What we know:
elongated
Amino acid sequence: MQFHSKTKGHLGQNEDWWNLNEEDGVQTVSHHWSHTQVNGLHTNDGHRKYSVEEFLSGENDAGAKTALKAVLGIK
Length: 75
């Protein structure tokens, strides 16, 4: 379930998506991104998977952390 996304850049060339996943009763957060440099046409795509605790305690996007807390009912 996607709980947050962010698009930056005047052409929307930097996109990030965060999803909350559950498998075998274990919740994880996945972060997918696609960042493109318009001059030079270089694209950086990728993804990373976190435990919920690791994501919330790490240096991750503040908006994504707030959105995840709302979905999980954490204040």
